[in-house]
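Hi X.,

You mentioned you wanted examples for the new student's onboarding notes, showing what a folding record looks like when two proteins sit in one file. Here is a clean example. The first protein comes first, with its sequence line followed by its structure tokens.
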Amino acid sequence: MFTEAIEKVSKYTRPIHTISRLYNSEEVIPGAATIFIVNEQGWALTCKHVVEFLATSDQIHKKYESFRHELNSMDGITDTATKKELELRYQYSDKSTVEVKNTFVDCVDRLSGYKVHIHPKYDLALIKFEGFNKLNCAEFPIFQSDTSYLKQGRFLCRLGYPFPEFRNFRYDKVNNRIDWTNEGHRGSPKFPIEGMITRFLSDGSKPFGIEMSVPGLKGQSGGPLFNKDGIIQGMQFATQHLHLGFDIENKEIVVDGEKKRINDYSFIHLGQCIHVSVLKEFMTQKGVAFNEG
């Protein structure tokens, strides 16, 4: 049903790849989010919480560099008490993130920076790529013009990058840092997930969001919601978890011939998407050109 639509939407939907590391760890943790390019000027839509994470990454980097500078300037003092005092001052423990690096994948040929517009109310942001010579995108989204099309029972699809399978990174033991590399698999599979419109999210006279019957997956935040023709209906931003009340406590079951007692608490996981009307209104306010259909 969505085969051709997914091919169409894939032409402008891209992943944001992230690598991070915890204090006292050599393990590199991959992560991902989603963005979709709106026009040839290099404007793109994603979630506010994704943009805020990108900003937090810079703060984490500056803090860790300051910590390392102080640690290296101790003139050979390596006693545990002194180091512990420094760790306490910086609030570092084995659960503290000390490095985060991000990259926009296959968006532009080069990037000198980007500017951001954050929606004052909803989990929505616009990003403008800067300093590029070529945009790695030749086709752009078409946004639903007649929003009365969106009704309960309408079957829609989302696209994103929830499974970070890229491996083009490493931990540099000599310099005690994580880095991107030119080796290793640099891609992650795009992943579509369908669903039915169940309800609309509203904070007043008109809806700002669309609730879907199945969850949006982690990493799909910022990904487009579209119909079978590839027309944009919204953008994935969150998943709500509602308790169903079908709870099972201390129930005896048999597994592989062995009796066990289990507890099970049931929830339904419902994806939440920013309504296309909010996307269009925000882009119009910021003077960002887009196509309707």
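Then the second protein repeats the pattern, sequence line and then tokens:
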Amino acid sequence: MHGENPRAFNLVTAFEVLEHVSDPVGFLSSAAGLLKPGGYLAVSVPNRSGVIRLCEENPHQWPPHYLSWWRLRDLARIGERCNLEIVKIGGDILMGGQIELFGKLRNELRTAWGEKPNGLRRAFPRVASFIYRKAGCKFFFPNLGPSIHAFYRKKS
């Protein structure tokens, strides 16, 4: 077709990338520029409103590793700024084991920093994980897992 970029793609993905770049709007705009009209862009990022809140002390979530934090509304807004139509937006289901993992990590980091652990703090991740799993909470609290995602379509 005349005027169509011969290097354009039907699908471009950026999984767990945006949180590492200093200009996510510029990055996403460039990615959208690689799409054919009607093409799709799939993005996933760590979920700021999800299970990672249990261990904000995790140094892997601090700059320079993560330069930005993301919520579902942030993915919606950045799509609008990049002239992309949202096809689907959502998040991972929180699994009970992730509660235990992030809770234990928090306890280990606090112990490494000199805080004395108490029994309640040590038991909480295991107990909370067990209750979450047995009560079927993943069906009642969607989008609390470690990642969120958006699928965009380039406007024709």
